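TA notes. Do not distribute before section.
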Amino acid sequence: MDQIHFEDRWIGWDILAPSIATAIGTSQIVFIGGGTPCGLHNNLDQVQKTLLLDLEEDERVAADRGYVGDVRVITKLKGSTPEIVKHNKNWNLLGSRHETVNKRMKDFRVLAGLFRGRRERIVLIFTMVAQITNVKLRREPLFDITSRLIFD
C-alpha cells in the first residue's frame, strides 16, 4: 500500500480526507491515500493524481458521483433503461461491499469521529489500521458478489 503524504501547509486544517480502494476479487485493501483537507480539491483531481496512476489498462474504479469525469471511474448513472438499471445494480453491489470495508475501518475509529492524537502520527495509525483490517479480511472475507453481477 502507498503511504499517505501530508504537507506542512495543511497543519491548521481540522478534517483530512482519507481514501481507500478494495479489490473485487480478493477482498483486500489495495490502496490507501488522501490526507488532504476536505474541500481543498475535488475528489476526481485527488484520485487522478494517486489511485488512477497505478491502474492497469483494463482496471476500473467504482466510485460515487463525486468522481464523475474520467472513463476509468465507474459511477451510478441516471435513467431507467434496462442497460442503466443493470449497470446501477452492479454498482450498488460494489458499493455495499466497499461500505463493509469502511465499517471495519470505523471499528478502529479512523474514519468516524475526530482524530485525537498527534497529527504526525495520522499516516502511521491509518496505515496500521488498514493492515490490521486486511488481516481481518483474510480471516473473514467479504461476501462474494461475482455470481450476483449482471453481464448480459
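Switch to the second chain here.
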Amino acid sequence: MSGRKRKVPTPSSDSSSSDSSSTSSEKSKKVKAIIADLLPSKSRKLYEKTYADFLSFAKIKGQPSESDILLYMHDLAEIKKLGYKTLWQRYSMIKSGVQARHDTKVDHRRVTAYLKRQEEQSSVPTKKASVFTPKGTKK
C-alpha cells in the first residue's frame, strides 16, 4: 500500500450542494417520508388506522396532548370494553404515530400509569414465565 492518503468525503461536503438547492419544505417532506417508513411494514396500515381513529375521536388537527390520549384510552377501556393488552397495543401505535408525525419524543406518564392500573384491575390472569431449574436445562 502506498503512503498516499485518500480524501474521504465528509457528510457536510457531500450534502452542501444538494442542501443548497433543496428548500426547507422539500427537506421536511423527505424527512416525513423517511420517518413514515420507520413504522413496521407488515402492520403499517393498522398503525395508520389506529392513529386516524384516535384523531377523529379527539377532533384535533395539531399535535395531540397527553390529556387527549388519556381520554381516548379511558373511552376504549370503559365504553368499548377493550382489555389492558389491547389498550397497551393501541397506545403504542398512537405513540408511534405522534412521534412520526410531530418529530417529538413522547413521554406520557399519566397514560402509562392509567394503563398499569387497568392491568392491575383486570380479571385476566397474567402469565409468568417459569423459572429454569438445573435439572430442566439438561434435557
